[in-house]
């Protein structure tokens, strides 16, 4: 692994930081979160036009920039620094890679250039915890889309095409996405399979309700499907089970690296803003930051942020390399590195954000202070993509620290 960044990568970071510093202050972020879309549409279009951010990791033949996971992670770190409310995670990290890998060529040409241009946003609607669906906290070949039982989402093939029935709770950006990628169970209980279906936001029978969330910067929605038309993703009616689960694990590895980078950026800003405040806030005639006990707490936070940043960068490298290390499977490597990096970053953000509130003193405990935005992001991300101990346990099992787990995962 080469830890040095290229001139192009450094330029992506600088340009994005300058733009977001001007357009995404704490009050601007709060205002954007309370719009119907849940984000500033003009900022998202500017990011697409000036930097090609939505298509940063997509191939040029599909309208993308042609960079890799490392550039996407660097951009995500800057987005996390300001808690950018935008469909970056859902459209570009969760949906676009699945369409690129599993979709037909017609579907790729029809959707990926629009996503890359920022014209189309997309969301992944998968019943069950998203961390489990992506293989971050456990094996993802279970009956999470419904398994033939009541609940989840069921798909039925009729004379005029596929119809979807069911409900998905807590769909990230589900209220505003123009395209939904819905995971549904097909074929009944005995011979059932899981498949992904593309659903247009204007489809008849589709109901989307925006939910009240802890973290306003990651809006969620409840999606209800009542006899909704869906188009299968890919050439066949249903892929092989192993093909879909492996694709979701690879997408989970990329998502883990991106989420870790966002958490690192948020933690870095929370720490730096706390340091800046403690340099001017005086107590007993001297800056609070000059007290040794305070310095120790800030130093601990700095070490945590740097360690989490290294882990996030390594995860990006692991996702973007050409092949597996030491003869292991690609999914095995990603399944270890991704959850570990995400666990380290989420834990770091949680601790640094809590310290930021405490070290700001009385003003830090007011809801209006920006420190609470970062604390809520830390708490909400662990609820959605964690918890931390399960991420680490998953990585340990994949690494074989508890012995052979093939049989355990087969029945999980």
Automatic annotation (TrEMBL):
It comes from the Bacteria. Pfam families: Acyl-CoA_dh_1, Acyl-CoA_dh_N. Its cofactor is FAD. PROSITE patterns: SBP_BACTERIAL_3. Gene3D superfamilies: Acyl-CoA dehydrogenase/oxidase, N-terminal domain, Butyryl-CoA Dehydrogenase, subunit A, domain 2, Butyryl-CoA Dehydrogenase, subunit A, domain 3. Keywords: FAD, Flavoprotein, Oxidoreductase, Signal. Residues 6-119 form the Acyl-CoA dehydrogenase/oxidase N-terminal domain. SUPFAM superfamilies: Acyl-CoA dehydrogenase C-terminal domain-like, Acyl-CoA dehydrogenase NM domain-like. Residues 257-399 form the Acyl-CoA dehydrogenase/oxidase C-terminal domain. The keyword Flavoprotein applies. Belongs to the acyl-CoA dehydrogenase family. This is Acyl-CoA/acyl-ACP dehydrogenase. It comes from Streptomyces silvisoli.
């Amino acid at each position: 692994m080469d830890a040095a960044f290229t001139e192009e990568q450094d330029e992506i970071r600088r340009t994005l930081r300058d733009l977001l510093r001007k357009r995404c202050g704490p009050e601007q972020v709060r205002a954007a979160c309370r719009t119907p879309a849940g984000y500033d549409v003009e900022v998202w279009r500017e990011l697409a036009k000036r930097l090609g951010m939505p298509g940063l990791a997509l191939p040029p033949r599909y309208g993308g920039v042609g960079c890799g996971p490392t550039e996407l992670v660097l951009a995500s770190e800057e987005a996390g620094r300001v808690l950018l409310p935008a469909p970056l995670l859902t459209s570009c990290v969760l949906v676009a890679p699945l369409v690129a890998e599993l979709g037909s060529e017609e579907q790729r040409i029809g959707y990926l250039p629009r996503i890359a241009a920022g014209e189309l946003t997309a969301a992944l609607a998968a019943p069950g915890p998203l961390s489990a669906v992506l293989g971050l906290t456990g094996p993802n070949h279970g009956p999470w889309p419904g398994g033939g039982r009541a609940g989840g989402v069921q798909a039925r093939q009729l004379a005029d095409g596929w119809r979807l029935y069911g409900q998905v709770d807590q769909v990230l950006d589900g209220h505003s996405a123009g395209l939904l990628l819905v995971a549904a169970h097909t074929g009944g209980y005995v011979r059932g399979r899981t498949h992904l279906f593309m659903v247009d936001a204007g489809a008849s029978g589709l109901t989307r309700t925006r939910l009240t969330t802890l973290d306003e910067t990651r809006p969620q929605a409840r999606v209800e499907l009542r006899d909704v038309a869906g188009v299968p993703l890919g050439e066949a009616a249903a892929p092989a089970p192993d093909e879909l689960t492996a694709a979701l694990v690879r997408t989970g590895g990329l998502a883990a690296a991106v989420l870790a980078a966002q958490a690192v950026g948020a933690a870095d800003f929370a720490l730096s803003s706390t340091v800046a405040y403690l340099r001017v806030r005086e107590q007993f005639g001297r800056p609070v930051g000059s007290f040794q006990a305070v310095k120790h707490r800030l130093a601990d936070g700095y070490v945590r942020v740097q360690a989490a940043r290294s882990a996030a960068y390594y995860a990006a490298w692991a996702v973007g390399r050409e092949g597996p290390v030491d003869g292991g499977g690609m999914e095995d490597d990603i399944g270890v590195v991704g959850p570990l990096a995400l666990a380290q970053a989420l834990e770091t953000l949680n601790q640094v954000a809590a310290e930021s509130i405490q070290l700001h003193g009385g003003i830090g405990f007011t809801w209006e202070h920006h420190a609470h935005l970062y604390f809520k992001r830390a708490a909400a991300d662990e609820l959605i993509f964690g918890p931390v101990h399960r991420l680490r346990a998953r990585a340990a099992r994949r690494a074989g620290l508890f012995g052979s787990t093939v049989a355990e995962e087969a029945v999980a």
